[in-house]
């Protein structure tokens, strides 16, 4: 951490402590999420930046927060499968329930589509942001610094892996193993219900293949060799006398996945009070050092709500401003979880969202890591393998965006658990994150001066413009005036 960054790092760490220890868990749409958003609004107002609040409706359980519902569907299908042996018509509503759950999981939980939000309880969340303009009020482009104010439900299986914190392989098995078995069990029962509905539906309609499948026991009663399809159905039927019992047990692992009690939710020191604090401190730095502001640039500190409910805050922000200049000629540094000093990285893609982030900014982060001597076990670059981050709605809105993190990408005992507390990481790591963001802003300004705004890029160019050095407080004023950031 640079000496000139120490005071900003200290205040950022104090904000993180306040969020995790004083406010606590901040589930999407909750009162505590609102408290933290208002707290950051007051921080902006205290430095002379008037905050703006934009409220939006969110259904916290419609997306990732509702995964336990899939476990309950699995349990219902397991129990109902025994009744359906005597009442075959039950397979039809069971298949309908299974199909509905799968469609919801794919589109709402995995792809973060808001199509099913209307069917779940709604609450009110908010985005709070402040903008810092050049002294003359004129600007050609915008840099949006964003983080999310909310935290996740406590992931019980990850938290239970705390006892294996010194044995990460066992911790991974304890977490992924339980969730994996539960997910497999749900899909087994859903597809089995659909299969049975197809068989009985075919028989009702007089399909020969369906009638043959259901006639296996009759063939055996008369000592005849049943057709292959009938033999398969008889064997499957025998197995399914026992499989639902096992699946029912494993489906409870899915039910347990997210603790429903808000008091047990993640305290969110790393994820993502760190991102909120750094976004604010960078804007405060430029407020206090207007001579360091990139020429003709506006900087926005955006506190997004309800990221953990399926990126709803960033979706609402881009939808609200799609027709104004807030998302035109805009760069977004999304800061999400800066705490693990050995894992500084730029997240360049949400795999499940099929969204590749900006390649120009990716290169800027990599260069900045190298210039600051930051080494990472991830090589400074990762894909987000599951879920999504706020860079996805930004990129889809035509904003150049990447996500900056310093987080072990493997599920750990503190990820989305109440153990995400500030005592686990160091103030200096936060300070290093502050230096990284300033370094990238410097490169954005240089790029903008040479190339202008070119929109999100999926492939990095071979050549990049030279970047002028950053000037800090201890440099003479005459040097500052001649330096372009």
SSE blueprint and pairings:
Layout: H1 6-23, H2 31-46, E1 52-58, H3 67-86, H4 91-110, E2 123-132, E3 141-148, H5 156-160, H6 168-204, H7 208-214, H8 216-221, H9 228-239, H10 243-256, H11 269-288, E4 297-304, H12 312-320, E5 330-338, E6 344-350, E7 355-356, H13 359-371, E8 381-384, H14 391-396, E9 400-406, H15 427-451, H16 477-482
Parallel strand pairs: 3-4, 3-5, 5-9, 6-8
Antiparallel strand pairs: 1-2, 2-4, 6-7, 6-9
Describe this structure in words.
Mean pLDDT is 91; it is low at 465-485. A hairpin with a 4-residue loop joins β6 and β7. With 485 residues, the chain is of the alpha/beta class. The chain has two domains: 3-59 and 123-154 and 261-470, Aminopeptidase (3-Layer(aba) Sandwich); 65-111 and 164-256. The longest helix is centred in the middle third of the chain and has 37 residues, at 168-204. The chain contains 16 helices and nine strands. Strands 1, 2, 3, 4, 5, 6, 7, 8 and 9 form a nine-stranded mixed sheet that branches.
Provide key terms for this protein.
single chain, 485 residues, alpha/beta, Aminopeptidase, 16 helices, 9 strands, 48% helix, disordered C terminus
